[in-house]
Write a structure and sequence with these properties.
CATH topology of the largest domain in chain A: Rossmann fold
Organism (chains A, B): Candidatus Methanocrinis alkalitolerans
Pfam families (chains A, B): Homoserine_dh, NAD_binding_3
Low-confidence stretches of chain A: none
Protein name (chains A, B): Homoserine dehydrogenase
Pathway (chains A, B): Amino-acid biosynthesis; L-threonine biosynthesis; L-threonine from L-aspartate: step 3/5; Amino-acid biosynthesis; L-methionine biosynthesis via de novo pathway; L-homoserine from L-aspartate: step 3/3
GO molecular function, one term (chains A, B): homoserine dehydrogenase activity
Radius of gyration of chain A: 20 Å
Distance between the termini of chain A: 26 Å
Strand content of chain A: 15-25%
Shape of chain A: globular
CATH superfamily of the largest domain in chain A: NAD(P)-binding Rossmann-like Domain
Oligomer: homodimer
CATH class of the largest domain in chain A: Alpha Beta
Largest sheet of chain A: 6 strands, mixed
Number of strands of chain A: 12
Mean pLDDT of chain A: 94
Largest interface: A-B, 57 and 57 residues
Helix content of chain A: 25-40%
Structural class of chain A: alpha/beta
Number of domains of chain A: 2
Number of helices of chain A: 13
Chain lengths: 333, 333
């Protein structure tokens, strides 16, 4: 039985999900040979530490660690001082400077701890730097949950399409935009009416710019470019157009000619823009779904579709990454 | 560098593809630490053996090994006598008795050789028996190419959805049926007209029963049931209805109400039958595509789509399976 001591840094929706998934899957993980325990949870109020593993029931109703933390350490200090094998970094993302996640991930890697994250910002800002740090320290950095939510994309390329050259990836990487465009087409809503509906349903933020202006999608394009295509792309390298200017009339005209309009991100082209997608195409998925089509040299085009977000769903991708760290290996001679 | 000596048993379309993919990807595989060489090719005429690795150019134009084989051994004898680490079994499939593939795979496993196959018959007839043999002999049996062609499905469940309970899988597992139904709907062709077109294009066989009566799909349902759901299903356990009775009028009526009609296989339900699929569903793919929706407890529903068949495409899935044998491991304490 391999013990895996996890430090959870960030205690929002995804953090709660990670605690819950580790609890639900504890028995299954043990059957796989992994004794997985979350030994610490850190937010801006401090750190809750329990070397026997934190009971998630204890934190179920808590929104923060205020009054719950038993150690007065946060951030990098918490990562350094808690004795753990792996850090799950799930603090809020910032796509411009990557902080505080970037500092957390650097601290963990340089301390010889594996890192699994759903935090896009640090990877958009410093993917190659972080992977070099991981390699120098003999640990792994995994980030499936940063792109496409529950839809396996990075691991699909790494594990299932081995031997294939990846010629290109195009997809819908933002469920909010997909929802708005789907409703505009189906109900002939205006952009602003569909946005309001999405906000009422909690699918869009009060300030929707991050989603509807394509910023989120562009961040994912940068991560795919650097991780799968070995590029050194920055956010500024992506040509980005959002969905604010799309009208129901344009959607209707496209529909009559056999097309949808979707916000599509493309690598290695480094573009994010509304594009015509044939109705018959596997990319033509509606609602909040995400989808990616992977063009390969040997296997043709493989398309994968899944939910774009969700607490348990994202946590599931994180736990899957953790397992893969302990079950993959280099080939030895 | 890890040397992998491969015996290729079966020299049809897929066998040629395997030789070609190993040749094309030789450099890439070496970078991954694998020195992969096909040391023997066997068909009913004999075996061509070359311990330094067979040059595929030499076999490029050959339909059989007649006049090319340098050893007078075939089938199980060839598997036993050739010094190899892994057998790729790609002889023609027989879904009733599984032979000759079944005997080949048994011989390989009991000789302590890994097996990778695209041959459905042996797995439909004896999945659990063969996996037990593999385990008893400390080797692996991989079969991604038996279900869904290039679409990663078995490996997706095993590698990418770790920690998830798989609640159900439904999909289109036969590109021929999908092509016929797509053409009937789009062009209002009758079943027999669409079948003739598919035969002219080489998409359907002269005797189409294996595809259009749902036999092929049912075989794949049995493999998924036994491998992913741990069942002990046999072909006879599957309730099967094919597509011969579907009319253009039925397809048109479904379309007007927002549906396609597709031949859908379901596990663990063990059914194959024409079903209504909402036009917006990720399952609603056309042409010769295959598709599978995987319902999970944590990650929601993940859908994957890809080409159903093809020489290089199937061979690519086989090579990917070979790589995964040498890059996955059990967790050690």
């Amino acid at each position: 039985m391999r013990e895996v001591r996890i430090s959870l840094v960030g205690f929002g929706i995804v953090g709660h999900g990670v605690l819950e998934v580790v609890r639900r899957k504890w028995g299954l993980l043990r059957k796989m040979g992994l004794d997985m325990k979350v030994v610490s949870v850190t937010d801006i109020n401090g750190t809750l530490f329990d070397e026997t593993g934190i009971d998630p029931q204890r934190l179920h109703a808590a929104r923060t660690l205020e009054g719950i933390a038993n150690l007065d350490i946060i951030g990098k200090e918490a990562i350094q001082k808690v004795d753990s094998d792996l850090v799950v970094e799930v603090t809020p993302t910032n796509i411009v400077h990557g902080q505080p996640g970037l500092g957390h991930i650097e601290e963990a890697l340089s301390s010889g701890k594996h890192v699994v994250t759903s935090n896009k910002g640090p990877l958009v800002v410093a993917y190659n730097h972080l992977q070099e740090m991981a390699q120098d320290n003999g640990v792994m950095l995994k980030y499936e949950a940063t792109v496409g939510g529950t839809m396996p994309l990075i691991s699909l390329v790494e594990k299932n399409l081995v031997g294939n050259e990846i010629l290109g990836i195009r997809g819908i990487f933002n469920g909010t935009c997909n929802y708005i465009l789907t409703r505009m087409m189906e109900e002939k809503y205006t952009y602003s009416y569909a946005l309001t509906e999405a906000q009422d349903l909690g699918i869009a933020e009060a300030d929707p710019a991050y989603d509807v202006d394509g910023i989120d999608t562009a961040g994912k394009v940068v991560i795919l470019a650097n991780s799968i295509f070995g590029m050194t792309a920055k956010y500024e390298d992506v040509s980005v157009t959002g969905i604010r200017e799309i009208t129901p009339e344009a959607l209707n005209l496209a529909w009559e000619r056999g097309y949808h309009i979707k916000l599509i991100g493309e690598v290695p082209a480094l573009t994010v823009k509304p594009m015509l997608v044939p109705r018959r195409s596997p990319l033509a998925v509606g609602g909040t779904l995400n989808v990616a089509s992977i063009e390969t040299d040997l296997s043709g085009t493989i398309t994968v579709t899944g939910l774009g977000a969700g607490s348990i769903e994202t946590a599931s991708a994180i736990v899957s990454d953790i397992v893969s760290i302990y079950t993959s290996r280099q080939i030895d001679g």
